[in-house]
Amino acid sequence: MCAAPAGNQFWKARTKHGRDRLFADHHALWDACCEYFDWVEANPLYESETVKFQGSASLIEVPKMRAMTIGGLCIFLDINRGTWNEWRNVDDFSEVVSRVEEIIRDQKFAGAAAELLNPNIIARDLGLSEKSNVDNTHRVIDDGSHEW
Fold first, then answer.
1. pTM strictly above 0.90
2. Helices (H), the chain
3. Beta-bridge partners for 140
């Protein structure tokens, strides 16, 4: 293995440090997010369904709504979730991040309300699940009766 020549200054030849910004500005980020929204609409999930007609049965593919997710968006944008979360604190990007998260939340809520998406799964994902506190304890009173 050869060592670098003594006194080299190759490091000074470097014109930049780190990787390029993935999106030049918030407009480019917004455009990429809109591409994800379009992709979700154009690529529904499919469910096989049996259809019977005049004594014969056939299997058909029925398109189902695909839920938008931040995870899916991050995969589409080729970023990790940490990068998305950091963009909440970047002046130009924070407004886009907030707007996109609201659009995704609204799409999931509307899909669940129309039962195009599983309402139970979406409610949990959106933090809307009902919480009930049921106290099933009872105590026996000295006279043999029960108090609930």
1. no
2. 26-42, 70-77, 81-87, 91-113, 119-125
3. 146
Domain residue ranges in the chain: 22-129
Q: What is the per-residue pLDDT for 139?
A: 61
Owner of token pair 């039962």: 115
Give me the residue label for tokens 């469910």: 47
Both tokens of residue 109? 């809520």
Rounded CA-CA distance 83/69 in Å is 15
- In angstroms, the CA 32 to CA 41 distance is 15
Neighbours of 75 (CB within 10 A): 13
Q: Which CATH architecture has domain 22-129?
A: Orthogonal Bundle (1.10)
- Phi, psi of 22, rounded to the nearest 5 degrees: -65, -35
Q: Is the pLDDT of residue 28 over 90?
A: yes
Query: From the DSSP assignment, how many helices (H) and strands (E) are in the chain?
Result: 5, 4
Task: Give the CA-trace dihedral at 83, 85, 89, 94, to 10 degrees.
Answer: 100
pLDDT one-digit tens code per residue, 11-26 = 555 555 555 678 999 9
Report the C-alpha gap between 77 and 34 in whole angstroms.
11
